[in-house]
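Side project, low priority. Logging it here so it doesn't get lost.
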Amino acid sequence: MSLRNLTMALLLAGLMAVAAACGRQATPDVNQAVQTALAETRAAEAQIAQAVAATLTASAPQATAAPAAQATNTAESTPTSAPQPIATPTPVRVAISPVDGDDGNDFLRGSNDENNGRVILLPGLSQAEIDDTPTFRDFINFRVEVFDTRAGLYDGAGIDHVAFRIIADDGQGDVVWEKEELNPAFCVFGGDDAGCSAIDLSGGAQWPAPFAGQINNNVYLAEIDIVPDQGEPTQWRWRFFIDSPDLAAAQPEAAPNTARINDIWILDGRYFVDFEAFGFTPQMPGQHLHFFFDSVPLLQAGAPGSGPWQIYPAANGLPATNPFTLLTVANRPPNANQMCILVANADHSVNQGTGNCVELP
């Protein structure tokens, strides 16, 4: 029997065991059945691989011994090449983290035996880097391996799609990211292999389009909806932290008619300023924003003060898009350490206490 046929036979045997267990009144131990089937399959594959290797070695043509003189001449005229090592790919480090809850749907699971196969896979991280509260510091990346044991024991078997939803779990419940994956590997940010695509958490990191919001240090909840080809779907829930030294912490909601700078980073010699306006839309003419360096006293940041300040939007009818990019590193005064924001009125006077200042990178 070929390796493929034997593998399929053992997988089917495992599935039949699961199905038989489901027909009895006792609760089936799906986890044990799946692990037994997987172990038997891997053992059979190893035995067949050894037998094939032995057969190939035995059937290989043997070199014919040459006369002594000929052998000597050959040795003198033909240099011997040292065997070259075969390059092996560097394996991707993958840690695991169990999901919350148990909805009783034992048929949708992965091959890991922890938590009955309901775990998050974390490419690029070792298990030693994961604790009870998974925390991303340099990058964020995760995926799930899941199959319907009634259809097969390989990633994606019997699965129609997997939908990811990330929610800021800070009491406000804002959805910061959503994605639907139709094929394995089922990666939260996409990707064509088990390594998946990751987001670098350096300064100014944002959730991918179309959300494109600023990523903040915060606690998040991932809701993962797994929809099989047949039968009821299930949802896995998994909490994690983002705690990067390059990111700002999530800020509480501010009072109306105020503004706030959340983060500042530099790109091509220009300041990129992530900001928010609360309870109004900055516009010219009308209520707008003044950006300025902290070398300007707060009382001088609007009319009748001497400034200087940068109005935003910069002209009538222009949108106040985020981030603000109208100031460059070359504009920074020698004694400036921060950039500030205040809400300004139509006559360019400012309302004190309506903004903040943030350290310049």
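Brief comment: The chain is about 15% helix and 30% strand.
Revisit when time allows.
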